[in-house]
Write a structure and sequence with these properties.
alpha/beta, seven-stranded mixed beta sheet, three-stranded antiparallel beta sheet, 12 helices, elongated
Length: 355
């Protein structure tokens, strides 16, 4: 079999050598093989169709979360979906004031034509990314493709150096809070999420992202088809960076509200609440319960999720006490993100509702 190098293939196909390496790493070039630090390609191999061109401007019918997010509700959608109240025609609005990765948001947007949608979070970098995906999808995809083409072919040590430089840049932009670089911040947010250890978003007390690089072989840094679908779904969504209480002005008797706050730790040492520099303890959980009661009085339909303290202490009635006037269901979930692999597994979580 006659072979050619990545450089030969680049000249033959009219693309960059780096792009050839990406296509080989993604297993899109038949019978390509890595020998030493070089790609060896059959000389009769055909140039793969460019997915970037195929998907351009053609969003999928469905959207899914664009980030891996601790506490994401993808695995509980079937249970949460049992509460969706849109079929009666009376509920025409949706609010999610702790949007996070947006699993429930996108499930609802995929299934229902809701008149008005409001999402918010206090994580400024997260909300900036939602804004950029909605309003500046083309330049965002261009930046992510460049990052992907640089990162994928690198060896581990060079990947680590590149990752750390991008992490440092992200933290510098966070500190400086310059709105002119919001596009770059969003691209870095996605890049770091796709390449960091276990998809964590964690900050230290200085509010600096400090997660090390993960060990993914070929991370999909730019999922263009899904990003375009997400952009399409977000076009009519109000996206707010702020406290959950700010949603009160939007919420009325025609609103379904899903509330997914930082979970109450199951043990004194199990808490992982550092998605922002602000913490969410028992006092904040009690304040949230009071907020839920206030929107309950407005006639909104509300579902709240949280951890089940009875996983570790059968006598802990914290949520039964603060949500005494509401219904509480226990559902089985799998803890997907934890720095300790032994701490992942089946647990019970709570779904609290006023209907």
């Amino acid at each position: 079999m006659e072979i050619m190098s990545a450089r030969d293939a680049a000249e033959k196909w009219g693309i960059s050598q780096r792009r050839v390496a990406i296509l080989c790493a993604e297993n899109r070039v038949a019978n390509a093989a890595m020998v030493g630090n070089m790609w060896i390609i059959p000389s009769n191999a055909e140039k793969p169709l460019d997915a970037r061109s195929i998907s351009y401007g053609i969003p999928n019918k469905t959207a899914k979360p664009f980030l891996k997010w601790a506490g994401g509700k993808g695995q509980l959608l079937k249970e949460i979906g049992k509460y969706y109240p849109f079929s009666d025609g009376k509920i025409t609005k949706y609010a999610e004031p702790f949007v996070g990765g947006g699993a429930v948001l996108f499930d609802i947007l995929n299934k229902f034509d809701v008149n008005e949608v409001y999402i918010s979070d206090i994580n400024a970098e997260l909300i900036n990314t939602y804004h950029i995906i909605r309003d500046d999808i083309d330049p965002l995809i261009e930046l992510l493709l460049k990052m992907q083409e640089i990162f994928i072919p690198l060896k581990t040590d060079n990947r680590k150096a590149y990752y750390l430089s991008q992490r440092e840049r992200f933290n510098d932009l966070k500190v400086n809070d310059n709105e002119k670089v919001n596009l770059e911040k969003a691209a870095l947010m996605i890049f770091l999420n796709k390449t960091c250890f276990n998809g964590l978003y964690r900050v230290n007390r200085k509010n600096l992202f400090n997660v090390p690089m993960g060990a993914y072989k070929t991370p999909l840094i730019c999922d263009e088809a899904n990003l375009r679908s997400v952009s399409d779904k977000l076009q009519k969504v109000q996206i707010i960076c702020g406290d959950y209480r700010d949603s009160a002005a939007f919420i009325d008797a025609h609103t379904f509200v899903y509330i997914d706050p930082p979970y109450r730790p199951l043990t004194d040492t199990a808490g992982f609440t550092a998605y922002t520099e602000r913490l969410f303890g028992d006092e904040e959980q009690i304040e949230l319960a009071a907020f839920v009661e206030s929107i309950n009085q407005k006639g909104a339909k509300v579902v709240v999720s949280n951890s089940d303290p009875k996983n570790s202490n059968s006598d802990d009635d914290f949520f039964e006490n603060i949500y005494s006037s509401h219904k509480i269901r226990r559902v089985e979930a799998t803890r997907m993100i934890n720095c300790n692999s032994e701490a992942r597994g089946k647990i019970k979580e709570l779904l609290i509702s006023n209907f």
